[in-house]
Amino acid sequence: MSVAIQLITRNRQPYPEMDAVYILVPCADSISRVIDDFKVDPRTGELVQRQYARAHLFFTGKLSDSLLAHLRSSPAAPFIKAAAELYIEYNPIESRVFLTTPSEQPFYALYSPHALNMVGSDLDAAADRLLSVIVSLDIQPYVRYYRPSASAPYEILGSTLMSESGATATCPRIAESMAALIQCKLNDYYSHEQSSSNGRGKRSNTLTPSVVIVLDRSVDLYSPLLHEFTYQALAHDLLDLNAGNKYVYEAESANGHRQTIEAELSEQKDPIWEKLRHWHIGDVSQTLTDQFERLLKDNIGVQAAKQASKKLTLHEMKAVLSELPEFKRLQESYSLHIDLASKCLEIINGSSLVMLADFEQEIVTGRSADGEFVDRTSLETRLISFLDDSELDAPDRRRLEEVPQCLSVNDKRAAVNLQRLGVPTDREEDFSGMPPLNGRYKWDAVTEPTDGQKRPRLEPAVKCIVAEQLSNTLSTELFPWTEEAPPECIPKHILNINATSLRRPKSPMPDAEKKGVVIVYIAGGITMSEMRAIYELADTLKRDIYIGSTHIITPRGFLDDMKSLHLKMLL
């Protein structure tokens, strides 16, 4: 039996004797094309074209009531055997990370004053995709969101302010708008489920409820700017990866020739990457060296080559041959990561990156490498020295200028645009419409040094937010609920259960044994350090925790995004 896969947008060969399975985006164009496959003569009402015998429709997300009504009243209706909504409109890029990218420039669309006509549609599309994640995980979550100042006179999508330099700044309530949209879509979905499946849409009796926490990028502006020395973060920050996860390098082939290889950095395909991506680069380098040497030592073929003068028995020759394919695969994998880690270390050692990163951490933690508190005068003096360092490249210089909120910043476009995220950038100015710093989320989570990480570092805000959520200590003033709050009898202790994944099927558990899922959604981009923090929490607490966003941001990409907010783009 042959199967033909065809794009619905192209001219297709008719198969009037065969059924067809349609996988469609739930939009007007998809419905129109399905109807066109079963045309009738408008005068006689007779069928004049029948592309397939019957149609089985599967939509990637929710089909609107108006489009469903249009389909039901169309000539194609008698030929539609089945229709279902799959809710797969999201991109699970990792087992605990998903993207809901609504447009080509999601940061610009959400935060630029020139994109006010786009923010509503982008948030609605992102909310549809977040709904797909929730349905895929089969949970009925409560929703809360970040509201930095409950008393600030904001409109739900923003109010316009004027800075001292004359720049227009809007502080949009992106998180609140997104949370309201997802709550509305959840209510519609639950209502439909209850009416069509005898109450299946009701919340299950889990020991702890599932929660969606909607944030915007203003909750933590340190993470996008600070240098992170973990393997994955460095690779994305320092190197140009094709398509976001493909690394091109040169290696020697079996015949001794150099060849160019494009390797995909994927947790599903590369166990070394999955294991080491969140490690400090110093630990990664040492581990790769030790494991590769062990690989060579334990391989029978390598040892046989060293003892070429010794005649091998047939059994030894068979053992050598059986190991060759697996050894070649492991050798290629180690070769990739040795090259990748070496390239990162080469860039680090050839710059002032280590000293710069230490200084960044002193700014945001207020502590030196030995744990002593540092005063502001000392920081400003060192800042001037760093900015005068000829080895500091331009992007890193701009990052350093924009990390501290305590320093005056004049005529720096990206810094001024921080006002769009609700952060005052003029030290002497106090915008009446801006949320005061004491009305914003504050956290003080500093990790202890490790063998690779020689000094304490500030953890991303999301790590503290999730930890406070799970311990029932997250502020309801800064993080209110969209509707009802969970029952007060939620246990505060953490139970030890196995975590699941967005990419592997979930084994069913009785309601009494289930623990609620936590989803953190950041509108405006997530960083590698925030992704790492979620994995660490999920592993430590044995909880199902996921993080999602419109897109992934790197420090340099974040600066480019900030600089572009004042531009008028054609999108």
Summarize the biggest pleated sheet: 6 strands, mixed
Low-confidence stretches: 150-171, 405-412, 427-436, 489-500, 504-513
Question: CA-to-CA gap between the ends?
Answer: 45 Å
How many whole angstroms does the radius of gyration measure? 28 Å
The total strand number stands at 17
**Which secondary-structure class do the elements indicate?**
alpha/beta
Short summary:
This protein has 571 residues and is α/β, with parallel strands linked by helices. The chain contains 17 helices and 17 strands. A hairpin with a 2-residue loop joins strand 6 and strand 7 (97-99).
Report what the structure shows:
The protein is an alpha/beta fold and 571 residues long. A hairpin with a 5-residue loop joins strand 9 (160-162) and strand 10 (168-170). The protein starts with 19 loop residues before the first strand and ends in a 7-residue tail after the last helix. Helices cover 38% and strands 13% of the residues. The chain has helices at 28-36, 65-72, 106-111, 116-137, 174-196, 231-238, 271-276, 281-298, 300-306, 314-349, 353-365, 376-387, 394-402, 413-416, 461-470, 528-541, 555-564; strands at residues 20-24, 38-40, 47-50, 55-59, 80-85, 91-94, 97-99, 142-145, 160-162, 168-170, 211-216, 246-252, 258-264, 446-447, 457-458, 518-523, 545-549. Helix 11 runs antiparallel to helix 12. A six-stranded mixed β-sheet has the order 6-7-17-16-11-8, with helices on both faces. A three-stranded parallel β-sheet has the order 1-4-5, with no helix packed on it. The longest helix is centred in the middle third of the chain and has 36 residues, at 314-349. The protein is built from 17 helices and 17 strands.
